[in-house]
């Protein structure tokens, strides 16, 4: 599969929203499945005549992961209660914006769906994570002070992050052999829809369901032959079949962005958001600990026996 989605700091930050809850989701699902699918005295595995019982499995799951999972559940519940106390709400529109950003950072809805499936997550799991993330941000943000001097210093240290390198937006159809590539090329010349052909023919399943869309990418992020072709093409131009180690690609350029050096004036909103997010991450543990003091919390897994 062609890895053409850009991997910059801002996109990695967006992906954190998605994967922050993976361990919790998977473990809770596993514990719930085994707890409800068999009785405690049933066995879940057997080696010769030696049985591993359901109760042994449950005990081991709790022993290895129970503390971490319960701590996450407690944190999420405290944040939920504090949001109610402070009347902080997250609208469906805000969650959708967060979801759209995540999908865009993955290169489209198809690639995002693949990422969810590969991590045993549902779309609702992702939305729940986004809601928790946005709620936490709204609760912590008023406690954070950022000066103009801090903003300018952060911009100076991270100027390249806010600069825009030359980028191309493209879609592609990836097939295994030259004959199929020529067949697809002929259909495109005859006026067939590129996106529909991508969904029908492309072996890149992550982009095929999104019409072959690879989003924007810069130099050094895709195969050399693919890059050379894409950056030399005009918008709406379709390439001849291009062979790479992944197979044969037919590329359609759908957008271009010129290189642009960042200025503090233009980048200030992004700088403030980035610095705020860094401070939220840094202050999260301290903020949560202070929040715990306002609630009567009993954790039986960590209590002294």
UniProtKB/TrEMBL annotation:
Protein keywords: Cell membrane, Isomerase, Lipoprotein, Membrane, Palmitate, Rotamase, Signal, Transmembrane, Transmembrane helix
PROSITE patterns: PPIC_PPIASE_2
A Gene Ontology molecular function term of the record: isomerase activity
Domain PpiC: residue ranges: 165-255
Top-level taxon of the source organism: Bacteria
Topological type in the membrane: Lipid-anchor
Family: Belongs to the PrsA family.
Stored InterPro entries: Foldase_PrsA (IPR023059), PPIase_dom_sf (IPR046357), PPIase_PpiC (IPR000297), PrsA_foldase (IPR050245), Trigger_fact/SurA_dom_sf (IPR027304)
Subcellular locations according to the entry: Cell membrane
Enzyme class of the recorded protein, top EC level: isomerase
Transmembrane segments: 16-35
Protein name: Foldase protein PrsA
Function description: Plays a major role in protein secretion by helping the post-translocational extracellular folding of several secreted proteins.
Entry-linked Gene3D superfamilies: 3.10.50.40, Porin chaperone SurA, peptide-binding domain (1.10.4030.10)
Species this chain originates from: Viridibacillus soli
EC annotation from Swiss-Prot or TrEMBL: 5.2.1.8
Catalyzed chemical reaction(s): [protein]-peptidylproline (omega=180) = [protein]-peptidylproline (omega=0)
